[in-house]
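Archive entry: two folds, one per protein. Generate the first.
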Amino acid sequence: MSKGDNEKETQTEAATGPSPRKGRLPRAGVIGGILSAVALVAAGGGLVSAASLTPQNPASRQLEAPVAAVPAGSSVGVCPGPARLLEGTPVGTDPQFSPESATAKTAVSAAVLGSSAGIIPGSRLAPLKGAPLAEIAPGAAPTASAPAASAPPARTPVLVAGVLPQREVDNISVLSADAQNNHQAAAGAVLSYTAEDGDLQGSAAAACQQPGNDLWLVGANTALGRSAVLNLTNASSTPATVSLDLFGSEGPIQAPGSRGLLVAPGSSRSIILAGLAPGQERLGVRVRSTGGPVAAVIQQSVLRGLTPGGVDFITPGTAPSVSQVAAGLDIQDPAALAALKAKPGFADAGPALEVAVPGATDAVVEIKLYGPDGQKALPGGGVVTAKAGAVTEVSLAGVPAGTYTVAASSDVSFAATARLTRGLQAGDAADIAFSAASARLGSQHIVAVPRAGDRQLVLGAPAGRATVTYTPITADGKIRTAGTADIAGGTTVSIKIPADVGGSPLVGYVVSAAGDPAYGALVLARDGRQDISAVALAPEAAGQRQVPVTLGY
């Protein structure tokens, strides 16, 4: 019999009398036992009362970790510099660049949303060092009574924005906007590059990015005739030490010189990826920084013999996850694409999804394409096994021409970027573009739009119905009447961007989404040319954050 059973039997006997299996105790013994039990209970109660009254040792108290409010900081977006051609065949981290082509043009367009009181945050476009290139709005000067940034909201919201319609640049630039009422300013900028001659003819575009300490870039190519230059920029006042993790077509690449790269405050550094991972048709790069955060972008270009094959910027996508979505995939005629890709040297001349699996387990990835009238099946079935520690390319050709959203899912985390192409004749100049996987749309995404070209806002809802509003911002700083896109689940909607709204040039949009997850991208082209570029919509502005504070020593 267990100790518990003995205790239960003792309790039962105390309540109902002795068990029939045992002899009866004398009456005096029973009375004595009851008195003893009463005394013990009373003593126990006294002990409990005494314990509750005795002050506890402070070291034994349970303390909840306090939460501290962290004020919102300035909004910072780092815009890459113009695309530049490498001089000769340099290697290392200090490349030389040839002069740009005579027709190359690079410009930044930006927009900063004002508060409900009609106050535009202090904002400017500036180089990494030196005086601002352009002031969008002056900083608010606090008064003795109340700071301007804390002005109460107006009864009727005043919808205004600070704008920078088109500012030509010749180097890396930074858009910064001051915080308002403990919220980051809602701001956005996009850099666009075009050239009609030279080896880097075509177009390239990239959203000016918020720096980070852990970035993923997928889709680079260092094979013959391909050039990939990683540009790291530190716009902060703290030194950054950067390490690169490289994933090739066969697995991880251990490259001398990929660790401990110092990027000084207010400086940039260029790295020839062919010097670290030569001959890689598929390459993914993880950029990790300690100290200051950095912005990272890969300038990718193609040259097939003497024929330019395009140029674009590969920007960071969302961190590895079991689900990735990229919008704005423009696909050309499938029969003509098949004929072009069959030619030597043109294997990368078609659309594809580049999948990087950083872990030690292979990923079985299911890929779906959603067009204007629903899902389109890929010729291969859309299910592939992506090797662990490597980058796998999945062709997206073979579906009818049109604009799509690509969604991929797996039981193993992966990162992904979609490649777009334009041009179907082997002897003509072509172009490439990359649309990195992005996060779902929320509220108040500021989408700056380049001034010229054929521009489309592409929105996709892979799983369920979503409603997206897009409110134009014009060059006179006005917020115009919003448009609405009701997107059925499993479809993609393309919205042609007009040149002007209300008689003023369009500079950008305020984009907000509701309902099931929706994703978006800008697709940029030029009439009469085979130019193509895509820009995933940047994340929305962040507000005041609360972080737990750990107590200890």
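Generate the second and append.
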Amino acid sequence: MKRLLRLAAWAIAIGGAIDPAMALPGASRARLAVVVPEPSSAAAAAARDRVARDLSASYDIVPHLVTDAAAAIVIGDRYPHEAVPDAMLVATVSAADAAPGVRIVHIDAPSAVPAATLIHLDVELEASLAAGRTTDVTASIAGLETARVSHRWTSEHERWHASIDAVPVGDPPYTVRVRLTDSAKATSVKKRGIAETVPAIDATRIASDSDPTVADVVVDIRRTPLRVEFYDPRPSWATTFLRRALEADPRFQVATLSVTSRGVFAQTGGAVAPGDARLDAFDVVVLGGLDRLSAAEASALDRYMRTRGGAVVVVPDQRIDAGPARDLVAGDLAERLLEQPATLTVTPPAPALRASELLVMRLVAPPSEVIARVPDADPVKALPVIVSAPRGIGRLLLSGAMDAWRFRAADNAAFDRFWQSTIAGLALAAPPPIAIGIEPPLLRPGEPATLIVRLHPPDATAVSAAIDGDQPIRLIPDAEAGVYRGRFVAGPTPGLSTVEVRAAAAQPLAASHRFVVSADAVRLPPDGARLALLASSHRGIDVSPDRIPDLERFIRGAVRAPAVRQVRHPMRSAWWMLPFAVCLSAEWWLRRRRGLR
């Protein structure tokens, strides 16, 4: 015992003299930039103080945009003066001393839709001092109202997201006019026995760019089909019946590549294997037979999503345990088997699905979108089954309803309708190989405009553009790879014009875009959605000052403290003096008991 105590004391003394260093894993505080561009309002200052107070315990708060910030929160009604890095996560608080009333903040509409398809509009509204009022949002085409929704405001400062499905009327391209009216002031009259609602707002007044209650958007007809490829490293019932659902819809052009045996495969519609450059011509790839997927194919599909911007729909028919497919999907998956088939809770307006063999996700990180859940009265237990998540500039959709195809005839063929609408949405959201945009999208005669061309993937060369085939536009490469910009002036007379763009790549690319020149075009005020657009382009959310708790929950879920290797010197702790003294004292006491000095 005496020797052990003496050795322990010597070990502590030698360790203190050497002072060894140890590298241990640890966590540091992430840096968060909370920016209020000047000049600021009283509402912006109050929101900044609250955000800084609530998040200072978890993050290092800095008042300016810095390159090492994990995320930024911009508060106010304008862009910050500093440049915002493209890769930075940005959330915004639209805080301004707004004038009383209701205004349109932003309208999200597709540039083109397939024939015989409703035009889906997402309209963001903001109300100030409008509690108790009811606002009608109408969409009209060629003077004919085709859709209407209403909302009653419950607080003094509130935002509301309106979803409208407008019916195309007349000849394309369609100019859809979105108008806000106060239904509380509307009167009802009868004309020829039919009740009609007459808004209190004078319908004869001419809307202008300074009116935030009226705005136009232009939507054209998509003349190219939605191209979808089914790739099965081995045959799968799950993808077979999904493919039949799409083949029954004339909007889709379906190609199939199914490996039936080693060196034997079935190919239709010009389908190609992952890794082939021609895969970029497809908008969506549906993947089945996951247990036979190779690492090279998984890597090629990941590139297809991140660089090309396409969507990959993963349809497993059994549990995914390991391998390249598991790496492609990621996430925390668990298998759940039900005794009876259950009707999944889906996001409207998608039709409901039935399934009994499920792959559920225990945790879904923002900004993923949950499309279907396990039915449960408790929202916490309603685990996601079908989830769509961003992957680069593309998307990955995982369907955990493994045996939904068994119930494809139930509920008036809801299985077919669900997948037709879901994959159509993914295909329409996928950028084409040449994406053409015009700013502003609505032009008046003789107005200057900017042509923006984005290439997917961005390795094409020799890009050229012209209007109506006889007015060339000089394109200049932008700072972003694959982006070109050019200036032009709209024609002197109202009408339709066509922009044609060509590029040289592995296969020659060509695209065209029609735009409308109209003297009656109505646009949103220029500052109507600046911060909302900043958040949407940087994977963040935009909230009003009364929804700051939602912003804080988003930041806490999206920004984690980075793991670091910290160097520590454990022998520098003063607490080592206690065991050192105990060892020496105990050894001395034992010696004294035996009469030793």
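Annotation attached to the second fold: The chain has a mean pLDDT of 84. The domain at 434-517 is CATH 2.60.40.1930 (Immunoglobulin-like).
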